[in-house]
Predict the 3D structure of the following.
Amino acid sequence: QQQVKQSPQSLIVQKGGISIINCAYENTAFDYFPWYQQFPGKGPALLIAIRPDVSEKKEGRFTISFNKSAKQFSLHIMDSQPGDSATYFCAASGPGNTGKLIFGQGTTLQVKP
Amino acid sequence: KAGVTQTPRYLIKTRGQQVTLSCSPISGHRSVSWYQQTPGQGLQFLFEYFSETQRNKGNFPGRFSGRQFSNSRSEMNVSTLELGDSALYLCASSLQGSSYEQYFGPGTRLTVT
């Protein structure tokens, strides 16, 4: 029940296209859902996050869509660029601010020029 | 503002030895969480410290321990190293309270031979 399942494992998108990564969770007590971006040799960097009382959040080219009833959330990267090529992780936390993030397995995104 | 710093960045140890890793959080952040990242298991939560107290612990053996100092800096220790402990060890700091955001350091790459 503590798992977060992420798909796909890898994704290839053409420059300018939309990249979509999906995550599903079981624990309805989770109340914080961030997305992280990680480049080789670096630590994960916080991209965008959402709480379950909001169905969508947009920051620049990055959008989180959240479906509470389906217990799913997804990351959309609009106008994907080669510089977006990285590994993306979804995560979940809660209830409350526990300091513990449960991560999905990651998606390796390659954006072809 | 300086980010999260971790030392050392790389470490090679022999099976059976022990190791101590250090993490300095972002100034003003009082919570430090530690994670282990491996290709097979992904990102897994080790423990979280707030105000020098361990508040949350992941599912790791007792060989993994940590502590936090009054200046919020944190250390983690792994005793009796095993080959399977080879991983990237990441720490993340957070303001805590109503702020759930965790910011990661670059990690310490530990290789056990």
Observations:
- The first strand of chain A starts at residue 4 and ends at 7.
- The CA atoms of residues 56 and 65 of chain A lie 5 Å apart.
- Chain A has a mean pLDDT of 96.
- The radius of gyration of chain A is 13 Å.
